[in-house]
């Protein structure tokens, strides 16, 4: 038995995708269009297996109200919205009309427009305008990494007990605080990690998962409010 997460090789990733119910024609078309229209940005899209996990996780948790910070072309939002079912509602925060224009078309194709609300504005502005009382069941954050700590400060008070926060690409390239390439960028994460240990939150750092662009590892945080 190994004492650390197994690395995701190309062969292992291909096997998992081939033997999982992760996709359908709508998702396949969205992934293909994202890579065709936005080839240099396609790595921002969650991996197909990650989308499958998001849908299953949302369903298992019984999410009824979720918030997504960073929507891009909509793959993760489709997964979350499907997992919530018809009674669920998802608030998507993004600043790009271009990227979310693609997302809107695929939400419509997937029959999800009635359960997704998109707000085009800086995410902090949107989050600060939400009701202060705890009402959020699930949060998925995959956006401006420099604002991760600020997002945390706005979201945690609004989470229901047992609510789950998913922070994607928290430690890009598995770099840690003090890395010479961008120490200020990473210090923000170090400060957030310190806050995690000081608040009433259970912590679990997920293992590295290869992203589609094959240039970094998605190392994230799953936190449960208690």
Q: Topology, pairings included?
A:
Elements: H1 10-18, H2 25-37, H3 48-61, E1 65-69, H4 75-84, E2 89-94, H5 97-109, E3 116-120, H6 123-128, E4 136-141, H7 148-155, E5 159-167, H8 183-198, E6 201-205, E7 209-210, E8 217-218, E9 221-225
Parallel strand pairs: 1-2, 1-4, 2-3, 4-5
Antiparallel strand pairs: 5-9, 6-9, 7-8
Give the key terms.
9 strands; alpha/beta; Rossmann fold; 226 residues
The second-level CATH architecture is: 3-Layer(aba) Sandwich
Shape type: globular
Cα-atom radius of gyration: 17 Å
The tally of beta strands, per DSSP, is 9
What is the CATH fold-level name? Rossmann fold
Give an overview in words.
This protein has 226 residues and is α/β, with parallel strands linked by helices. It has a single domain (10-225), classed as Vaccinia Virus protein VP39 (Rossmann fold). It is built from 8 helices and 9 strands. It has helices at 10-18, 25-37, 48-61, 75-84, 97-109, 123-128, 148-155, 183-198, and strands at residues 65-69, 89-94, 116-120, 136-141, 159-167, 201-205, 209-210, 217-218, 221-225. The strands form 2 sheets. It has a 7-stranded mixed sheet with strand order 3-2-1-4-5-9-6, sandwiched between helices. A two-stranded antiparallel ribbon has the order 7-8. Helix 4 links the parallel strand 1 and strand 2. Helix 2 (25-37) packs antiparallel against helix 5 and helix 3 runs parallel beside helix 4 (75-84). It is globular and about 45 Å long. The chain starts with 9 loop residues before the first helix and ends with a strand.
